[in-house]
Write a structure and sequence with these properties.
Blueprint (H helix, E strand, L loop, with lengths): L1 H5 L15 H6 L7 H12 L7 H11 L3 H16 L5 H11 L6
Helix pairs in contact: 3-4
Length: 105
């Protein structure tokens, strides 16, 4: 989505929002394997013609400069708030029984 924004094509994609939220980028967990894409998007934003989006550039720089603790905290936040609620209830119950000692795997 950021790369579409960088080339002024985001507004042509009907299924995507017209803007990229810098605040959301600040809060997003990004795997280290995706860092080259973050760097590529940052370069595209910096070389973009017209008005530069300094807030979005700052958010991407923040992603690249996170220390290990910040990275881990965002990863756990992502697991608890984004992944956890999507797990099937049967898996959640199984984990509950395991934690309470009712299930001996």
């Amino acid at each position: 989505m950021i790369n579409l924004y960088a080339v002024d094509a985001l507004e042509r994609c009907e299924t995507l929002p017209d803007e990229v939220s810098a605040e959301r980028i600040h809060r997003t967990y990004v795997r280290e394997a995706a860092y080259p894409y973050v760097e590529e998007n940052l370069r595209a934003l910096r070389t973009r013609g017209g008005m530069r989006d300094r807030k979005l550039e700052d958010a991407l720089e923040n992603v690249l400069s996170r220390n290990a603790l910040q990275h881990r905290l965002l990863k756990y936040r992502w697991l608890v708030l984004d992944v956890g609620p999507r797990l099937p209830r049967s898996l959640l119950r199984l984990g509950k029984f395991h934690l309470q000692g009712r299930w001996n795997g």
